Amino acid sequence: GQDDDVVVGSPFTMREGLVAQKMIADCINTVVLRTSLAGNPTGSELLARVNQTTNSALAHSRLPFQRLVKELQPHRARDHNPVFQVLFGVDLPVERIEATGIEVADYFVDPGRSQLDLSLYLRETPTGLQGDLYFNSDIFDRDTAARLVDYYVRILDALVDDLNLPIGDIG
To answer: What is the value of pTM for the model shown?
Structure first.
C-alpha cells in the first residue's frame, strides 16, 4: 500500500525542443518519483523499481509541476508540501559550450534553506560526490540530520557490497 511508498521530488532539466536548446539557462521542472518498498526488496529489485519509476516520470516530465498539483488536488496544509516532503537533486556535469568572449562554468547555487522537510543535493567533483543537506529545523535538529546522512551512506555502502541484500535488513 501507500504506507510502503517513498515519494521524492527531483528537479529535472528539460532541454528538449529547438527553442529550449537555444536558451542559455536551464529549464527546470520538478518530477515526482513514487517507489514502493513493499515486500522488502533486494537492492537490485529496488534499483529496478526506481529505474521504472524514473523512466515513467521522465516520459511525463513536460507536465508542469503546478499543473500536476492542480490536477491531483491533494490536501493542503501550511506546514508541508502537498505532494512530497523530500527533494533529491543530482547535478551532473553539463555539456561544455564554446563561445568567443564568454566563459562558461558549472556553478552550484546554494538555496540557503530547505523549503521542504529535507532537501539533499549531490554534485560531482574531481574528488567524488559532494552533498549538501538542508532540513526544516522545526522538525529536525543538526544531530538528527547528521544521523540521516550517515544512515544514507551506510545504505549505499551496503548496497555497493551486495545488491542481493534486502533493504529492510540494512541496519
So the answer is: 0.70
- Which three-class secondary structure state does DSSP give residue 4? helix
Question: Which residues in 35-51 are b (16+ Cβ under 10 Å) and which e?
Answer: beeeeebbbebbeebee
Rg (CA), the chain: 18
- 3-class DSSP state for residue 154? helix
94 vs 19: CA distance, rounded Å: 18
Instruction: Give the tens place of pLDDT for each residue, 49-72.
Output: 999 998 888 887 666 666 666 766
Could you give the CA distance from residue 161 to residue 44 in angstroms, rounded to a whole number? 12
The tally of CA atoms less than 13 A away on the side-chain side of residue 125 is 10
How many whole angstroms separate alpha carbon 150 and alpha carbon 145? 9
Contact of 15 with 28, CB cutoff 8 Å: no
pLDDT digits (tens, 9 = 90+) for 126-168: 888 888 888 988 889 999 999 999 998 899 999 999 999 999 9
Rounded Cα distance between 107 and 24, Å, is 14
